[in-house]
Amino acid sequence: MSDLAETLMPIAELRRNQPRFRGLEAGHLACLGCGQALAARLVTEAAGPDVAVANATGCLEVFTTAWPQSAWRVPWLHSLFENAAAIASGMEAALKAQGKPAKVLAFGGDGGTFDIGFQALSGMLERGHNVLYVCFDNEAYMNTGVQRSSSTPHAAMTTTSPPGKARMGKRHLKKDIISIIAAHNIPYAATASVAYPSDIRKKVRRALEIDGPAFINIHSPCPLGWGHDGSLSIEMARLAVECGLFPVVELERGALTGTMPLRAPRPVTDYLKPQQRFAHLFQNDPRAKEELEHLQALADHNIETYGLRGERPDPLDSAGADTVRRGGVRWA
Amino acid sequence: MVIYTRGGFALPETSLASKTGTWRLQRPVHRHSSAPCHTACPAGENPQAYLAQVAEGRWREAWETLVAVNPLPAITGRVCDHPCESGCNRGQYDEAIAIHNVERFLGDQAIREGWAYPVTPPSVNAHRVAVVGAGPAGLSAAYHLCRLGCQVTLLDALPEAGGTLRTALPPYRLPREVLAQETQQLLAIGIEFLAHHALGRDVSLDELCTDYRAVFLGPGRQQGREWSVDGRVPADLHTGLRLLQEWVAVGTIPNVKSAAIVGGGNSAVDLARVLRKTGAEVHVITHDALPKLGVPPEGAMKAIPREVKQAREEGVMFHEYRGIQRLILRGERVVGVEMVHMKKLPRPDGSIEIVPFEGTETVLHVEQVIPAIGQVVLATGMERILEGSPFFTVDLWGHVVNHPGVFAGGDARKGSRGTVSGAVGDGRRAALAIDGYLRGAEASEHRAEAIPLESLNLNYFEHEPRAEEPLLPVEQRSGDAEVASGLIQPQVMAESQRCFSCGACLACDNCWTLCPDQSVLKTKELASDGSHYVFDYDYCKGCGLCARECPSGYIVMEDELLFAGLT
Lengths: 332, 567
What we know:
The structure holds two protein chains of two kinds. Chain A is of the alpha/beta class. Helices cover 37% and strands 13% of the residues of chain A. Chain A has 13 helices and eight strands. In chain A, a hairpin with a 2-residue loop joins β7 (249-252) and β8. In chain A, α3 packs across α9 and α5 (84-98) packs parallel to α7 (118-127). In chain B, α7 links the parallel β2 and β3. Chain B folds into four domains: 14-32 and 504-564, Alpha-Beta Plaits, CATH 3.30.70; 36-116 and 448-493, Fumarate Reductase Iron-sulfur Protein, Chain B, domain 2 (Orthogonal Bundle); 128-223 and 376-439, FAD/NAD(P)-binding domain (3-Layer(bba) Sandwich), CATH 3.50.50.60; 258-365, FAD/NAD(P)-binding domain (3-Layer(bba) Sandwich), CATH 3.50.50. In chain B, α2 (47-55) packs antiparallel against α3. By secondary structure, chain B is α/β, with parallel strands linked by helices.
């Protein structure tokens, strides 16, 4: 242990000497095991200090900026729920007018992206602003107490889509946001998952290199809203990818240019069973069995549509992309 | 005091004032667990530790970690049956790490580079200890006593050190230059080596007990067991070990067309291969099973499985579950044996009985029958201690019962499995016990349970094939050329990188990367001891994500109340 003792500086100093950029600092008030906090931390780390952020109302805004404190170490602006993209467009225009090279990021949850802020987002994409819009997709309005959004998956329980006599959870499907975004013919649109941090970093850097609008949707488990232990967030995110319910893809100018193939697709039940929001699907009820089959069919449809079934083991497929090595080589 | 404007803003990272660690019910802690390779090693090596250093390119430090436990890695890397690899968790995932090849490579590199053992010479007034027998047990005991600051005198009846390694191991398994170089470098640390000193001829045990503060006995097993079939023995009876020793020493071997060797240990297999090289038809007859998948180690032949495999490749015929029921003699000369199927069966009282099955007799025509059924200690000079018993009765630490100050280990100990690594471990533990005896303290060693595969997170590993060392083609295995040629450096490096690092920090950055609360801080880019990360308990909320996702099972969650002193 002598090596450790020699290098152990006071912990506050150690924090300032971390070999990575800390865009989102500790002391924020996210729940235990928050997938969104991890995703936002990874995105700001990869983006670096030369950015300005517009943040829609939502969990991320609330837990990072309990007034008078802020967990951010980058210029950051809280917009309304519906206008993060519009604010980001204005910030980008202002920085351009001043001749400053800073890159603008816009952050929103799935509520602020798929639903409430969608019009402003569409406008930002249409006008071609040089902004990276990141959606932290936890599949419901978690900040206000788990109301269903257009991103909530089919058959999931929320407070506004409770399972009961009439329905088995949400009756509608998860909105295919990435196709809608890509249909704006923007240079770069991608999905990513917190279970694959190096993939997130790669996509953020790729998006920031592009001059023009870019969009990344990051699947971010919510332990409280989904009903699983905080320690399982990464496991849930990984299973969502491995079963095909959350395809990890890249689209450029509307065309599919990259996918994370699945080494061995898992049955959707592996992903659904540990989550309380799908508990009603594991009761002895013929409708539950039907919904499970429906969700499996949706996963199979994704696998088919995006050609996710890998032909042979690939270092960048769903089993290879998270491989670790001594010395942290994986995360480079 | 900060005055805020109407718009409302906050300064960067002011959230650090919120000590979210107060939310915590459980805290992550780093806990080292023993890797299964470590708990399986009879010598006490921790391969996980030196594999980590190899993976970081710290070759000499890896060797020093290795020889802190086992001073003979070039030898054991070749001749050990490597239970570390049977224990390796990776074996349940794809294929075990080729630990013996890493060990061998490090030993060979030390010989090539002339690395000196990390031992400081003992002071002039250090305790004097005598070690009898310069085989693996004696060499290990002498080395560890030196490390512990004793002055050691090592005695052996033979002109050179090595013991059974030198007298009975065929050079195609252990080249003599490797044996000579490693033992010479070992003796050079300041061990006084007295060759041609046989106990009971040149020096007596009583003299040693008077002249030295403690004595370690590692004489090995030199006396062949009595053998007969229904009281009959062939006229030309020689034990397998005797023939093997003669072949190793002077190169003579019985010139027969066919032979049956009785026994399933390494001597039987070694002798079978040596005889086979003369062109003879060689049969090995054993009560036990051939080593293969599904056979538990206690039911299988004692010989090293890879040696059995190589012997079969060379054309040695094995008869498993067989025994000899009758010698077929013409006059006093053997012309064949009657074999019968036998099996070890448990009896109601818990004992094991070898049962022959009537009606399964077969005749094997051979010119010679050679028993290789094991040996006992040659009692000369040690009659007082042995008291008529074939082996020494000792405890885990090598204390000879009722003889304070006398320690024993290696093959000569009752219950020894007869492996080199076992002897090295005996020597090491006895050295610790002697050190304790001289200082009036008890020797102790903490041995933890091995961490099971289920405690690792296998999502973070990729399937990668094990590096296999090239073997000499069967048709070229006639002389002393070494059969297994070992791995080259890039292969050794690749093997070390396959290690799961069970129960020890892999330095993979996973916890640092996945903490949503920026509460894992990195301390150093590379180090193999301890951890590379610290938890900032001011902010850690105790979600358990890091523990769940730790690939090597090095992070565990503990109840916060334990730390508050409230339980």
